[in-house]
Specification:
mainly alpha; single chain; 22 helices; two-stranded antiparallel ribbon; about 450 residues
Length: about 450
Amino acid sequence: MNKTLKINPAFFFSILIGYFSVSLALFFIFWIKVVFAVPLVIGLIISNFQLIRNLYASFSVENIQVKSILLILLISFFSLILVGFGGIFEQKFDLFYRSNIVFSKLVFNDWPVLNAVSQKHYLSYYLGYFIIPSIFTKVLGFSHFLIIEFILNLLLLTIILLLFFFKFKNFSFFLFLIPSGIYWLIERSVFDYNTGFRFFNYLNVLAHGPQQLFPSLVGVLLFIYGFKSILEKSWIFILAILFFWSPFAVVGLGVLYLSLVKNTEMNFINLFGAVLSITFLLFYLGKDAPIFFKFINFQSVGLNYIFFIVLDLYVLIILFKPRFDFTFLSVLLFLTFLPFLHFGKYNDLLTKSSIPCIIYYYYWILNHSKIRWNKLTIIILSIYSITTLNHFSNLLKPYQGNNQILYQLKDKNFTDFSDQNAEIQNQYYSNLDSFFGTYLLKK
């Protein structure tokens, strides 16, 4: 006999919102002057209470089989292990060097963390994801870091996937979490240069930056659940707390939330969300690094761009014939024209800001199309999933570090493990002479 549990999905949303908010509260307490930190923490508590109350008023208790929970837990466990968490299989550069250096600086230094070389800059790189694991590692010891990060990510990923399961009542949601496109695979195989044209989804993002994936998935979940009355009362606050984790993800989520703007309620929670947004914007704008925005050179990569959007977007539009509404049209136009604007050496704006929209794109294609499922559609989705599924090759690659990885990286700088120059590496720090550094940063 299959055992079932009665669970209110609002409980899981509350854990996620709470986890994100705790990271904000820790940032306020340790990084911002007390005179500003106290009202920010109070406002955060009040806003959380109002949002969670609204969530519980909109959801009801649902049944879920224990075996479904265990299967989702197993999928989350294997996904994390596969991309390198837990210290078993190889980690991508972004995780092994960049993320672990951030962790080492947070674990072995007082907060706020100053640049050890210049003492004129403070660490300001996606701190939302890193703060809570760093606190636990400071308390329990750096030798436990790998398991601490793994457990916290397992908690977040399992809850997120459970919420997808509650929404769709089955595991069909993986059909729009796994595909990401095929152009990048073709470019790597055929061309001898990197245009930066690629979309990432699920395992790709988890392997390179969970700080991008988790806020993207939470923002998409809240939107596709369809509780517009809740979002109209709180979408500014929701995007603000996610903005601290990933400004790029919020750019993409902002496209999804466009339809909510005209009916936005100017209440306490949204007004406080605006205050948070300004605070975090000032935090990120304090960087010395120039903003590397530029338009693509259409003369040199124009054909690649056309090939990219036709293959990764419009082929599926033609084949699946989806229904169009304002949000899907906005998403499609955003994904179409986003590649024109290049940001960073590897086009971070495209690969990161597109995450929420590419998830929603596949969700809409698979759930609001005229075509019926058949062998052809399954084959097409399988082909478009190759880029994601190539992470299974990690099973042949052992972890390149050890349990003392944070200690190994304790005295390393971001330039020690990168082909990027020092000017670009300034993206990890902000200037003490900036507005945030001068007036808000605790010293």
